[in-house]
Amino acid sequence: MKIIAIANQKGGVGKTTTAVNLGCALAQRDFRILLIDLDPQGNATSSFGLQELEAESLYGPLLGEAGIREKVLPTRLEGMFLIPADLDLVGAEIEIARMDNHLTRLHDTLRPFRDDETFDFILLDCPPSLGILMTNALAAADELLTPIQCEFFALEGLVKIVRVIEQIRNSGANDRLELTGIIMTMYDGRTNLSAQVVADVREHFAERVYETMIPRTVRLSEAPSFGKSIFEYAPNGSGARAYRSLADEFIRRQTQEGQ
Fold first, then answer.
1. φ and ψ at 119, to 5 degrees?
2. ∠168-173-175 over CA atoms, to 5°?
3. Could you read off the pLDDT of 138-195 as tens digits, one per residue?
4. How far is residue 247's CA from residue 2's CA, in Å, rounded to a whole number?
5. Which run of H or E residues covers position 21?
6. Measured between alpha carbons, how far is 130 from 161 in angstroms, rounded to an integer?
7. What would the DSSP string read from start to end of 118-173?
8. Which residues, other chains included, contact 87 with Cβ-Cβ below 8 Å and sequence gap of 6+?
9. If 0-12 CB within 10 Å is exposed, 13-18 middle and 19+ buried, where does residue 97 land?
């Protein structure tokens, strides 16, 4: 079992879209996936139509007031499970910061899943900030996947992420953390900018950049408002094809790592 953080300190780069649709694509390939929504805004939760639930987030387990297993909910897709988010997570940021083990609360909370291999992959959908929840996710994760929008400041954002990884490693909270994948999102093949950004990122980060690129498409942005993944909303569109390809590349990379 591996824990994968999907994070970028910048919002609007396709982070939650990637967490939801990569998870669903992997579940369609018979992997057991748990997606944990760590963003108090709950966009991943809304993508499954579960935003009306209350007191089901990771708030209780993070503070030691509830077990994590009781927070796991099935989704409509077989093999895809979710721990939803709610506004209580805002309070968790404040309360965890006061604890001695404030960087490793999530790592300790997830230990039951490491012990019994309930899931093949746990995906952590992080909030778009450098606060306690995101740093906890990085301290708990085996790997980091970073979606990057094909825009002018993409490399600048990546530099910040690399610095955060170094800080987490140097703090002793997680010395095994690696940035193993960069996913280019909102790619528009009609523009020179998208092609130039991809070329620049590949020049600096080489094989860590996924070959699969996620296109800019209205369907991907519409799907969450209907409480659906792209595979339910537009299964034959370019967005769905891209995330199926991304899942296949993710599996290949995981297989190569294990060899």
1. -120, 155
2. 70
3. 999 999 999 998 887 777 778 888 888 999 999 888 999 999 999 999 988 888 888 8
4. 15
5. helix 15-28
6. 9
7. --SEEEEE--SSSSHHHHHHHHH-SEEEEEEESSTTHHHHHHHHHHHHHHHHHHTS
8. 40, 42
9. exposed
CB 47 within 8 A of CB 3: no
236 Cβ neighbours under 8 A, 6+ residues apart = none
d(Cα 53, Cα 165) in Å, to the nearest integer?
33
Closest CA relative to residue 128, chosen from 147, 156, 143, 110: 147
Structure tokens at 151: 């825009």
Rounded Cα–Cα distance for residues 143 and 2 (Å) = 8
Give the phi and the psi of residue 57 in degrees, each rounded to 5.
-80, -175
* Residue 147: strand pairing partners: 183
Residues in the chain: 259
Helix (H, G, I), strand (E, B) or coil at 2: strand
Q: Does the domain spanning 2-253 belong to CATH 3.40.50.300?
A: yes
Q: How confident is the model over 203-256, as pLDDT tens digits?
A: 989 999 999 999 999 999 999 999 999 999 999 999 999 999 999 999 999 998
Question: Maximum CA pair distance of the chain?
Answer: 52
Backbone angles phi, psi at 141, to 5 degrees: -85, 150
Sketch the domain layout of the chain as residue ranges: 2-253
Straight-line distance from the first to the last Cα atom of the chain, in angstroms, rounded to the nearest whole number: 15
> Residue 114: CB partners within 8 Å, gap ≥ 6?
1
The rounded distance, in Å, linking the Cα atoms of 174 and 159 is 19
| DSSP H helix total and E strand total for the chain | 12, 7
User: Over the stretch 65-94, which tens digit does the pLDDT of each residue have?
Assistant: 999 999 999 999 999 999 999 888 888 888
